[in-house]
Amino acid sequence: MKAARIGRLRWFAIAVLTTASPAYAQSIDRAEVEKIVREYIMQNPEIIEEALTELEKRNQAAQAEARSQAIVAETDALLRASDDVILGNPDGDATLVEFFDFNCGYCKRAAPDVKALVAEDPKLRIVLKDFPILGPGSVEAAKVALSVKRVAGDAVARDFHVRLMEMQGQINASRALDLTEEMGLDRKKLSEEMATPAVEAIIAANLALAQRLGLTGTPSFVVGDQIIEGAVGKEPLADAIEAVRQK
Questions:
Q1: What number of other Cβ atoms are within 10 A of residue 4's Cβ?
Q2: In the predicted model, what is the mean pLDDT of residues 131-159?
Q3: How many helices (H) and strands (E) does the chain have?
């Protein structure tokens, strides 16, 4: 790690020298450049460290800006996709979007926070996006959940989501369908719905949307023009929601 950092410093200094004075750079050989660079780094290490820190800040700011622009471009897909399960107030004045996986331990850890936000904030709308990235079982569970909404409607889909998210251990089609039977739903009809191109298309669209937003893990939350990754707790999410309302 240290060697790599020194290398970055060296090449940064070379870039400074060659950019600042190209004619001078052409008049000296590589050995002279490396000697000058080494002396420069040894005498002024704090300057290079500061420059690299500033460069990292700019890169992070550029990434955040790119994500914000992507969120604006994807507003309809994020907020108004008809196949998503909605928690809380469907006409709320603020929306929190969660990309989740039924087999994600961090999603299960965040579930009580999401539930508490709904209970404490009557004007909050939460959009649930199936983002099954943790293996075949996750894809199967997502297909069952989407089929429940398509066959049984919104209220049942909300109940199913909450109960399946509370289930411990690995979730797959069999376990998810067992839960539907416990809820009195038609297992055969749901199994048939799971195999339809429409359900496949919803999952493909969610995966593509997550890619366009630069999401790589679950849970990932989108609120306003901000992306919050991980099970960060209730308060950071609540603060982000209130910040949106203040704009």
A1: 8
A2: 97
A3: 12, 5
